[in-house]
Amino acid sequence: MNILLAVDNSPHSKIAVDVIASRSLPGGSTINVFCAVERREPVFAVMSKEEANAFHNKALEIAQQFTSNMAGTLRAKFPDCNVVNEAIFGDSKEVILERAEKWPADVVVVGSHGRHGLPRLFIGSVSQTILLYGPCTTLVARYQQAHQDIPEFDKNVLVAIDDSVHSKKALEWVMKLPWPDEASFTVMISLPPLVEKYSDGIDGLYVSKYSSQRLERSKSAQVLLDDSVQLIESKLGAGRVIGLLREGDPAEEILKVASAWPAGLIVMGCRSRGHMTRLFMGSVSQEVVLQAPCPVEVVK
Asked: Domains in the chain and their CATH numbers?
């Protein structure tokens, strides 16, 4: 497995290192601890060209040092993996996307700066860009709310699915990864409500129709859920996987379950969307990533 760990010198990237160090990885994996150092042109307004070059070169040197330190931490944790570090000049989003595609990476790991509201819409973030446009699975790392000194991110794993091919890929991803013996899994399906509410008017005429549709949909979802639980159990063993069927807004229900359990990791698929739809309407995976109380692995 090729893992591109995209970092900077912030606490968010240190969390990303902790998340990877806590995970179980396939033997022989390669981890590239990668940093893109951006050249900031406004520096030239207050510095000579020589001073600005020295400033940027010093920033690159610092990046090479902290990526080397992070790589050393991961080498100690994963002696059977190939861990390298790299720092280059370039726009973070563009360089990470390019490297992930050309390598190619199987998963890109980024820390989350936790932006919310309008700033995330107009400013964006590296993690959001990689999530939306990256060519492979994206792991957005953050500490879970229940974190107590020692991070354990692969013990309670919430796998959120539906009946799409994207969820099938997420299940396949879970199946091919190694997990510790003490890991527990919840496979969850959240069915969006057929209608928001019934009224005394014309909607009331369709209550029986809605009830029939709900029952049929629930039966179909339960079959999918049972099959998915059995699939994971076929690799991990019985007693480690439960199924959970909920009704409600999928993103909200996933977040509720993740907080209440609490989950150490959420794994889910990602639907492909057009640029404008992604920007203004978002998606279940995007909303979960933005608000989750734990790391989220979005499988493509």
From this structure: 1-142 (3.40.50.620), 148-300 (3.40.50.620)
